[in-house]
Amino acid sequence: MKKFAIIDLECTCSNDGSIPRDEMEIIEIGCVITDIDGNISDEIDIFVKPIIHTELTDFCIELTGITQEKVDDGVSLNEALHRLNSFMISNKVEAWMSWGYFDKNQLDKEANKKLVYKENASFFVIPHINLSDKYVQTKNLKRKVGLRKALAQNNMQFIGRPHSGIDDVRNI
After folding, report:
1. What is the edge-to-edge ordering of all strands in the sheet holding 95-98?
2. pLDDT (tens digit, 9 = 90+) per residue, 87-114?
């Protein structure tokens, strides 16, 4: 049976411009392993310690629910990517997915910028599937919709906290 990883990232952020978009850093990696029918068989939630903007903004804490303590106790991005890769390999993942391209682009951009683990990492080698695009195609929609709207269109409700990496992947 084919297995897939669904990944969602949460990053440092601000609502006042104090953290420019190109300086956002991954602070949480949520990942579930699922089959083609969406049955979850395993999951991992990794908190990452930021190194550029080390103090989370009040906006970021309120949006994500991630506390300063969680990121202070988090691992380096390099360690997080090693853990994620090992998790994906042990689950024999054939492709990974995310809702949109942000997660794929952020992983690639930040790994390059910080010169961290990339060689032979599953998420840089195996195929990536944009589930937002797949949803638009399947439903013959004219434009993309957010995850919560997609769930509502299918008479489903978001369970958990929006902008929590692990809750987002469980809902995707």
Report:
1. 40-47, 26-34, 4-11, 95-98, 128-130
2. 999 999 999 999 999 999 999 999 999 9
